[in-house]
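Protein: DUF4185 domain-containing protein
Species: Williamsia herbipolensis
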Amino acid sequence: MPVLRRSAVLLTTVCTAAATLVGLGVAGTASAAPCGNAGLLGSSPLGNAIGNAFGSFGSSGGPLLGKSSSQGPLPTVNGGNTTPVAWVTGAKSPNNTEARFGISGTDLGIAWDNGTGQTLMAFGDTFGNCNAAGQQWRHNLILRTTDTNPADGVTIGNGVPGDVRSGAVVGSGAPTFATESIPALEIAGVEVTTIPTAAIAIDGKQYMNYMSVRQWGGPGRWVTNSSAIAVSSDNGQTWATQPQTVRLNLPVTVPGVEQVDDSNGKYQQNAYLRGHDDPYIYQYGTPNGRFGAAFLCRFLPGNILDLSKYQYYTGDSDPTKTWSPDTTKSKAVVTEPVSELSVAWNNRLQRYVMLYGNETTGNLVMRTATAPQGPFSAPTTLLTSQQLGGVYAPYIYPSNGGNDQYLYFTASRWLDYNVMMMRTDLSRIPVG
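Structure follows.
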């Protein structure tokens, strides 16, 4: 969807819904301090999504980045089954993303195999020089790597203007500044930011599911306008939102945008999974924020952009009724609270592995199942808030470097507002 058309749709949507949302008691603006400031871009603060069980600070605490960057050394964890391996981003990472890409702080790092020998990584709200105008805020961006051995982190090559396989998308006038992938209106109460939540490659194209955040609320809570799929035919260099994939999360109807039903709210943040010995791609969804359950739907790869072809898990024991095209029949496969999840098949365990954060406890947890719909095992704790506070968003990395004893995943830390590679020793994980 062209930027102007997308902006018009969003403005129409949120303006029509404004009175209704006020009546529902949507939280007002709350400022954050990603660069040591009281807010961001004047009327468009990031908000107080930071300030939660994961140890973040919010507007009442300290800065995430400080005046330039307050990233610390790679933290250590004593004991347990999971340990940090290396910083992926930040000035203190081996990639030195501050100098090479203008990235002093960012989060997420959703990683996926692009199908042609590279791993692509999608990051959320990103900042550069905190003393520059707007702190060089980008709502999201893509980095690329050919590194298949995450045992010592991942190496990201230089960005090369016009090179769709280089380490970052950069322009000829700024070859050391990674550019934004999906824009946002930057209007508080309309659209504050756009954040990737899942991505997958199908037949040479890249598909990224993202959420449009209307308003940050209290700790771990925010309101979305919608989720949608953007497509790239040039390896993440450019992206185009597909209007037919928009799942509105507002009580309005927009002409030209197919409305499914109120169950759109179950799929505002997502995770993709390729079935093992199975033709389907599965999409796990959660509501906006960090307190919802996880739901499940599936589709054949060629139907990713056609929501009418999706099938939703109903939980019905009758195998002829287990999957339905009716979104209202979509039942939870994991109970709340589930936040920022990822799922992948694991050869060592011969099970599907799900990682996510528990907002109530501040822990990162793992669950396993022999089928995408479960039943999933009881959660195994990978990292507690006491071991390493403020860590969130565990996204499974698509390579283990040839050593299946370890599961690698990226995770973000509020204190440093950067992404690190983590490693879990699967020999210490009970499988039941």
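Remarks: The longest strand covers residues 205-216.
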